[in-house]
What does this fold into?
Amino acid sequence: MNKLNFTRRNFLKVTSSVAGGLVIGFHLPQTAEASTGGAIEINAWLTIDADNIVSIVTPQTEMGQGAFTSVPMMIAEELNIPWENVRHVMASANRHVNNDNLYTTTSTGGSRTVASRHPYMMQAGASARERLRIAAANRWGVSVDQVNANQGMLTSGSQSGSYGDFAADAAGVTLAEEPKIKAYKDWWLLGKSVKRLDIPQKTNGTATYAIDVEVPGMVYAAAQACPVPEGKLVSYDFEAVKNMPGVISAVELKQVKPVAAFTDLRSGVAIVAETWYQAKNALAVMPIVWDYGRGASITSDSQAAEAMSLISGPGTLVLNVDGNPGKNRDKGVNQEAVPGIIAASDNVVIGEVFHRPFESHATMMPPCAVADVTADRCDIWTFTQDIARSLNETADQLGRDTKNVHLHQTYLGGGFGGGYNMDVHRQAAAISAEIGRPVKVIRSREEDIAQDSQRPPIWGTYQAALGDDGLPIALTTHIVGEEKMPAFTQRSVADMPYIVANRRHEYSSVKSHIPIGYHRAPGANANGFVIEQMADELAQAGGWDPLEWRLKLTEGNEPVQRVLLAMKEKSGWTTDLGSGVGMGLALVESHGTVSGCVATVEVSRRGQIFIDRLQYFINSGYVINPLNATEQAESSAIWELSHTMTGGLQIRDGRIVNTNFDSYTMMRMADTPPKIEVHLEMSEDQWWGGLGEPTGPPTPPAIANAIFYATGKRIRSTPFSKADL
Amino acid sequence: MALTLNINGEDHVVDADSQMPLLWAIREKAGLTGTKFGCGIAQCGACTVIIDGNAVRSCNMPVAAAVGKSIRTVEGVSADNDHPVQQAWQEITVPQCGYCQSGQIMSAVALLEKNDAPSDNEIDKAMAGNICRCGTYPRIRAAIHRAAEIAKS
It folds into this structure.
C-alpha cells in the first residue's frame, strides 16, 4: 500500500480508518479563474461548456503511461458525465505553484498517479457534481435530495437540464461539506477498458514534445558538461570555432555549489548557432579543458573490486525500510539471532554474488528544453516528470519570482524516472538569459547517456540456515550499491514477502561520482534479481518446488497468495520440461503491487537463449483501466527484458564509455518474445497499487530461473547476452 | 545554399549547407516536426522517412542527397489520420510515449507498400531499425498484420 505524504495546507485532515485505508478531508479551491471560450470553471480541475463538454485538467505529465486518460477517468467517474463528452487539458504549472500547490502535486512517478492520488481526484469530480445538483435544486426550488445527476444531465421530476445549463450557477455554490467518494461497487466508468486519449495525436506527428516547440527568433544550443561527472570546466577556446557556419556565441554554464545536486546546473559550456546541427558540430571541435575531479580514476572494474571486498564483510544493518513498504515486513523477525543460528547450523546455504550494472534511461527523446527569457518573464518547455519542480528550479536558476515563470507542459518522449534528476531546463534558461534570445537546447544522445542520472549498480548475496523441513530458519541478505541513494539497496529485499523468523538485511556502498536517479521500479528492478534467484536456490537446497516454497513462506499474505495461486492454476507450471527447455518463476512486490512472472525459455546447444513466453500475474488491489494496465504491464516487462538481455553501462577513466545505441544496445522487435500474456488478479480489498513499473522486477529472475531448469546453469549477472551457457 | 526538397508532394526551398542531415532540414527548415531526432547515427529509427519508396534514416543522410527525390514524412501519410497503418495503430493502441512512432509508422508503411501480407519474420526484419523504449513491439507487430487486413478490405 502506498504511503502518502500529506501537508496541512493541502488537506484538512488525514486519519486512518479501521480497515487501514485513508479517510481524507479535502479542501477544494472553489474560486474560478477567468473562463475561456464560454466554458465555466467549476473548480480548478474542470470546466463545462454550453454543449456539455467537460474539459478536465491533468497536473501529471503524459509519458505513455496514461495519466492524461486516467486522471480524466477518475474525475468523470464521480462527475458522472459520458466519456465521449470528456476532453483533456494540461495543467498550468504557474497557477499550481503560485496558488499554494493548487493540484496538491504535479509529480509523475512511482506509479502513483492513480494509486495514491485517486482520493482527491475523485473528490474533485464528486465536489463538482454536488455543486451542480445544488445549483439545480436552487433554480427549481426543490431540495437537493430530489435532484439526480446522471450522465451529464440533472433531473428532478419533470424538470431537466444539462450540466452545461447549470455550470455558471454551480461555480458560485459553496458546499457545507464535501461528499464522500464512491466505493468500488458503485463504479460505472472505472474498471472499464478505455483507449488513451493521446493516441490519435501520436499516429500523425501532431503530438508536441519539447523538442518540437518553435518560438519566433529562436536559436539552437548544444551543451556539454564534464564527461567525467562531478568534474568542472577550466577553459574553452571559442576563437577556434567562432567562424564556423552559423555559430553565434559560446555560453559558460556556471555551477554554483562545489558538488552539484542532481537537479543543479552542472559546470559546462554551450555553443549557440542558427541550427542545432551547426551548434553541435562547433561544440564537437571546440578545445575544452576540464578538471576531471575525483571520479577520473574510477572504472567498472575498480567499482566491482570494491564491491566484492565490501560484500564479504559486514554491512550496515537495516532497521527501518525506506522506499516501498512491504505488507509483512515486521512480522516475527528477529534480526539479532541470525548470525548465531547460521554459525551453529550444519545445513547452511551460502549464496554467490549476483550483479546488475549501471543502466541509462535513454528516453527516445533526448533531453531537450526551450526557454524564452525576457526582462520580466520566462517561458519554458522542457523534459520533466514534475512541472512544478521544473518551474521552481527555473525560477531559482534565473533568480526570478515564480509568478513570472511560465512552464508549458508538453508530451514526454519517454520518462521512466529520467525526468526528475535533470538540468536541461536550467541550461536553456541560463543560455536564453545570457544571449537575450529564445533558445532550444537539445542533448545529443552521447551527451544524454554521459550525463544521465543513471540507475545504480548492485551486487547482492545471502546466507541461510535450513531447518529439518528444508525451509529457512535464518536468513541474511547483503546488497552493495552506490553511496548516493542507499534506499535502492533495500527496496523489495529488506521488505521481501517471504517470512523467515530470523532475518536480517545489510547494505554497503561503493564510492561513485556517477549521478543517480529513479529508473523504472528503482531498487526493485535490481534487488528482485537477487531475491528471486535466492528463493529458487533455497527451495532447491531444501527439496521444495519453487512455487510451493513461495506459497509456504507467504502463508496468510492474501495479495501474494492470490498471485501465486493464479500462477499455479493458469501458467502450466512445471520444472520438468526436458533438456534445453525450462520454466521459471519470480515474484516481486513493488509500488504496492504484487507482480509475478512465469518465463518459458529454450536454450540451444550453442547457448543461444530464446524466450518463448512470458506470463504475468499482477495484483494491484484495484485496476481502473484494464487496457491501460495491460499496456503498462507489457511495457515495463519489455523495459526490464531489454536490460536483462542486453545493455549495461561501462565506465572507464570515470566516464561512461557506451553512450549511443551502437554500443549501448537495446532490445528490438525481433528479440521480443512471441507470447507476452498479462493476467490481472485483483484482491479488490481497500488498497491500491501502482501499475507503471511492477512487471519489470520479476522478469530477469524468472528468465534466469527458467534457464537454470533448461541447462542446470545459473546466470548471476546481466546482460544475459554475455552469459556462458 | 538554396536546395529544393519535395516533401509530401510539395516543394520546399531550404537554405542549408549541403552536408546538413536531411532530418534537420525537414524539422528546422521545412518546419515539419513529426519526424524525430533520436540518436544521430541511424541506430534508432526515430527519424525514418520514405524516400522514393524506401524507409531511410534521415539523421545521417546529407540533405543534398535528397534533392530531386520524393520524400514522405508522417505528416504526409494521410490527410485525416486514417491510413490503414494509422487506423491499426489506433485500434491496437500502439503508441505509449509516442516519440518513436512516426519512425515506426514510416517503416511499416514502406513495408506494406512492398509486401501486402508480411509474415512475422518479414515484419521483424523490416522493423529492425526502429527502437521503442516503451516496448510497444508486440502491438506494432500485431498492428502491421491488422493494417494489412484493413488495406485489403
